[in-house]
Amino acid sequence: MIRFLLKGLFRDKSRSLIPLIVVTIGVMLAVFMNGYVRGLMIDMINKTADISTGHVKVITSAYSDNMDQVPNDLAIINVSSLKKDLEKTFPEMKWVCRINFGGLIDVPDANGETRSQGPGMGIGLDLFSEDTDETERLNLSKSLVRGSLPANPGEVLLSEDFSQKLKVNPGEEITLIGSTMNGGMAIYNFIMSGTVKFGNTGMDRGTVIADIHDVQTALDMYDAAGEILGFSSSGFYDDETATAVKTKFQDTFSSDEGEFAPVMLRLRDQAGMSIFVDLTDSMAAIVMIVFMIAMSLVLWNAGLLGGLRRYGEIGIRLAIGEEKSHVYRTMITESVMIGLAGTIVGTAIGLSLSWLMQTYGLDISEFTKGGTGGIMMPDIIRSKIAPSDFYIGLIPGVLSTMAGTMLSGIGIYKRQTAQLFKELEA
Amino acid sequence: MKSITIILAVFLTTNLSAQTADEILDRVDRNMSSENRIFESAMIIHGRRISRTITSISYSVGDKKSFTEYLSPAREQGTKMLKLEDQLWIYSPSTDRTIQISGHMLRQSVMGSDLSYEDMMEDRKLTDVYDAEVVGSEDIDGRPTWVLELKGNVDDLAYATRKEWIDKERYIPLKEELYAKSGQLLKRSTLNDVVNIEGRWFPTTIVYKDMLKQGDGTEFKITSIKFDQEIPEYIFTKAALKQ
User: Fold this and answer.
1) Which residue in B98, B213, B218 has the most chain A C-beta atoms within 10 A of its own C-beta, making it the best mutation to test that interface?
2) Domain co-membership, A196 together with A300
3) Which residues of A touch B73 (CB under 8 A)?
4) Would residue A191 count as lying in a domain?
């Protein structure tokens, strides 16, 4: 029976070609989109990790309780020693110190008095060490809008919108007014070397990027830092790896239980990030459902057209005594065959495209030059292939073909046997 | 007839207590406010990790002008603050900058203490900006006090309502609770070491506690105070900040 149906499909190309092309294209798009959207989500997660969360983060227990207030009075002290311990225990991870801080940014006039001012948030990171990769991690060169990157101690970057609001230009002096680690008043002068764009409204409104050593001097935080961020060598956040690192950290550093004891948070443990991580995992199901609905509609329509074209053939088959249910079943079997064939071809093409996109990526740096994209926007858009990509196409490919045929094939049951000969004579 | 008597009694009681409250507050203002004063103080800030002491000298004239110079520790030494009307400037010798503090920055903590710039600037007489009502009597550390509820009658107050425990004998507050418009308790302070200076009672130690902040509060100790002194006018100029 199956061989008979296959012969029919091979010999009558008009019966199989269009549905096969539709299924192939649909499955290819589903597989490719699945990898692409996953890659996009992972890019977003990685950008957030690069700027604020890390793949894992080490802070003091007291700091973690009030993390949204950036409590630098509860920062890690003797941070260089702890960082060395982390590097020794987790050599596969890259560890960097960061200080987040808040304060007032004040721009002086010629007399040293306030010309303009506004509240700002700052990130202190290692810009000048020999082995630092923080400039690349934050994509600062590509996000530069005006001026240049800090080249000397005491130079900082401002978000472009903030610099416009303060009416300050590269090369001009700005003053940070904030609190030292011990709660004292911190007033410190910087030179604004340039401006960057983040591509995030909140950060563009008022952010300062400074070298961590300058921030330590300004805030009286010698050998102290608010946070130590850890990044896995793959460059991608992986929940399982992060969990393993956290477990090992708890085993190694659990002897210290005071309020200033170091604790580790995975990216998932930090504000609002768990939903993103979970969404990345469930993205396959969302893409699958959307494509299944769309393809079912297309194939339903293709089935209706096929039904009209095969109106005479089905009429004769019914007239010579073939049961309606048998005709219906053979049509569904045909559709399963086409669905399977289209799924295999579509998955192969979709995976090939995803692999190309994962390996080489789509370089959009030309469009993001001069800070038009911002720090939050990746330069290269990449897909991410996961095991689910190998079978995800099967569901929309086979099920939607079947659903389309089942919907269009209902018409068979509406044919009146008594009318068949009249129809055929006509 | 009976009901009229009750209404009259209630009216008279309310009126009398309102008058009494205003009178109490007026006596408090006479103790706490002055034409001008010079005082030296030590502010002990109790943080989660360490406690710090900051010393300063302050000059003030009425509720419009004040000038503070920080004397120690080394990091804060030479930092000066000038308040003129509702404007505040800070001078930092390490950066040679004169910075105006305005807007929401006025609500920030001064030197990491439980006091905000707004608290430092607020020097108006209580009778000028609050309507008072006596709501009870309590003993604080064995001293009988009136409990007064103060409701702001001007818009630009840092604290819309206050609760004050006023010493019945010396007419000074022994405890204060400061509330936001929403009714949330923002700060609590206790006033101790009351001394009689030049015929007026004055608390020389105040412990402030910002209720929205962790920590053990800030102790503000007045080490010396003089009232009605000759203060040169040039002190209250921006030029004096850099001197």
Assistant:
1) B98
2) no
3) 184
4) yes
pLDDT tens digits along B127-181: 999 999 999 999 999 999 999 999 999 888 889 999 999 999 999 999 999 999 9
**A245 located within any domain:** no
All domains in chain B, ordered by first residue? 2-32+126-220 (2.50.20.10), 36-41+48-122+229-241 (no CATH)
A118 interfacial to chain B (CB closer than 8 Å) = no
Final residue of a domain: which of A175, A210, A234?
A: A234
Residues A333 and A356 in one domain: yes
Q: Which region holds residue B171: left if phi is over 0, alpha if psi is between -120 and 50, else beta?
A: left
Does A99 lie in the same domain as A62?
A: yes
- The residues on B that touch A, with CB distances below 8 Å, are 45, 47-50, 52, 54, 73, 75-76, 79, 90, 92, 94-102, 104-105, 109-113, 214, 238
CA–CA separation, A271 and A83 (whole Å): 24
- Cα separation, A261 vs A255, in Å, equals 9
Mean pLDDT value of segment B217-230: 91
DSSP label at residue A44: H
Total domain count, chain A: 2
User: How many CA atoms lie within 13 Å of B235's alpha carbon, on the beta-carbon side?
Assistant: 18
Residue B179 near residue B186, CB atoms below 8 Å: yes
- Report the DSSP beta bridge partners of residue B70: B56
A–B CB contacts, 8 A cutoff, strictly below: 82
A287 vs A283: CA distance, rounded Å? 6
Work out the percent of chain B whose per-residue pLDDT is above 90: 54
**Mean pLDDT of the residues in chain B:** 86
In B, minimum Cα distance to A217 occurs at: B75
Per-residue pLDDT reduced to its tens digit, B49-95: 888 899 999 999 887 889 999 999 988 899 999 988 878 899 999 99
Positions of chain A with pLDDT lower than 50, given as ranges: none
The pair phi, psi for residue B151, each rounded to 5°, is -115, 130
HSE-CB of A15 using CA atoms within 13 angstroms? 17
Q: Which residues of B42-76 are buried (b: 16+ CB within 10 A; e: fewer)?
A: bbbbbbeeeebebbbebbbbebebbbbbbbeeebb
What is the distance in angstroms between the CA of the first residue and the CA of the last residue of chain B? 74
What is the helix (H) or strand (E) element at residue A259, kind and residue range? none
Sign of CA dihedral A125, A127, A128, A130: positive
Q: Does A12 share its domain with A82?
A: no
DSSP symbol at A258: S
For A259-281, letters b (16+ CB in 10 Å) and e give eeebbbbbbbbbeebeebbeebe
**How far is B240 from B65, CA to CA, in rounded Å?**
13
User: Is A69 within a domain?
Assistant: yes
- Structural domain including A177 reads 56-234
A250 located within any domain: no
In A, minimum Cα distance to B80 occurs at A185
